[in-house]
Amino acid sequence: MAEDGAPAGSRDEHSDARDLLRVRDLSTRFFTEEGQVNAVESVDFDVRDGEVFGIVGESGSGKSVTALSVIDLVDSPGRITSGEVWYRNADLAEEIRDENPEAVDGDFVDVRRVPDDVRRALRGSSFSTIFQDPMSSFNPSLTVGEQIAEAVEVQRRARANPRSTRSRTQGFGLTDVLTSTLVPSKRYVSEESRARAIELLEQVGIPDPADRAEEYPHQFSGGMLQRAMIAQALAGEPDLLIADEPTTALDVTIQAQILDLLRDLQDETGLSIVMITHNLGVIARMCDRVGVMYAGEIVERGTLSDVFDDPVHPYTQGLLGSIPDLDDPAPRLQPIEGNVPDLYDSEMEDRCYFADRCPYAMEECLNHPPEFDVATGEPQASKTDPGEHGARCVLADHEYDPSRALPDDYFEVGSEDEPENAEAAETEVSTDD
Ligand code: SF4
């Protein structure tokens, strides 16, 4: 507990914003035969009540693994190696305070430190997810309505018996299908849950929901199936929806419909959403605040206008510069040269990970990975508060100094100058130290 009684990692006491989720120092590694991959590196962010927090970055930047880490769904050989995920839930905090005092701070619970059964229970009821490809999320041999009703039933049973692991994890298997067919009175899924599934299909805009509930996934279009997946995600009435590239597989008009649907649902239910996407258009349309990811780190975060109108990190500037501006069309778009690094621990150098692609790389960028710094220049701004606009870049703290720029070919493989440059830079950096 912080001295002022606010939970650990809390924003400053003058802010009246209510956080639903506070992610702190979250790191996830994959231990492969080729070596250790640092997929997520010391990530911090907050998600407030009823907001859409966007995480944007190129493929391989760690966006999806971050989302999976928050809900503890990282599969082997991946493992969350550090971090805290504080979720505001006063009832749960009260329930486990005596048993697990270290997992409770005020009304917040660190979901990484609660027992496994409690953490499992939070998935579906408190946190829900939708993914890019709805077809792979549905069982092709069961009707869509049956599968949504099953999700409703699991949550209904969990609420009736909150400490029962079985009630939360029991699924709808072949035995249940046969029992339901042969002995209707022993159906796993109740009539109430079936009726609720139809309501959910209606809520997400499926026409003739009672009829469509009887259809199989292959009878739905991609957009309809994405709506059905959203309906399934709402079955437990979650506080937080993690939407991982939810529109990537859809054509543009359907994308817009799905995004509008998510916004409407958010208005209706007060849901908070974490929107994972590589699409800056989706971020601009949907998000209240944004975290830009690169090489497993959040390299810039702030409100939508902080990040879009006043980007600090050269990677953010590069992303924004690589999309067309219809009001001021450029003759050529400006791509970000180079690629995201492989993230193998053995190859990650102790410097800014973006340095080899950065047009402003300077000697000081090679000292060590830059700390997160606020971009406001206000002395009272807290560098550790994820509510502040900031960037993991030396330029958040001071102006670019061209006289300290690295030579243009500094990072070129096989550059004849490289050894000399490297030596010269190291010498100058160490001199500065
Ligand atoms: S720290 Fe240096 S190299 Fe890294 S993004 Fe900022 S200016 Fe570029």
Radius of gyration, rounded? 24 Å
Distance between the termini: 37 Å
Query: In percent, how much strand structure appears in the residues?
Result: 15-25%
Structural class: alpha/beta
Helix/strand order, N-terminal first:
EEEHEHEEHEHHHHHHHEHEHEEHHEEH
Give the helix proportion (percent range).
Answer: 25-40%
Q: Given the structure, what is the number of helices?
A: 15
Please report the total strand number as a whole number.
Answer: 13
Bound molecules: iron/sulfur cluster
- Strand order across the largest sheet: 7-8-9-3-10-11-13-12
* Low-confidence runs: 1-15, 165-170, 416-433
Mean pLDDT: 83
Biggest sheet, in brief?
A: 8 strands, mixed
Strand and helix map with partners:
Layout: E1 19-32, E2 35-48, E3 52-56, H1 63-70, E4 78-88, H2 90-96, E5 104-105, E6 108-110, H3 116-125, E7 127-130, H4 134-137, H5 144-160, H6 165-169, H7 174-182, H8 191-203, H9 209-212, H10 222-233, E8 240-244, H11 252-269, E9 272-277, H12 280-286, E10 289-294, E11 297-303, H13 304-309, H14 314-321, E12 373-374, E13 390-391, H15 418-432
Parallel strand pairs: 3-9, 3-10, 7-8, 8-9
Antiparallel strand pairs: 1-2, 1-4, 4-6, 5-6, 10-11, 11-13, 12-13
Helix pairs in contact: 5-8, 5-10, 8-10, 10-11
Bound molecules: iron/sulfur cluster (SF4).
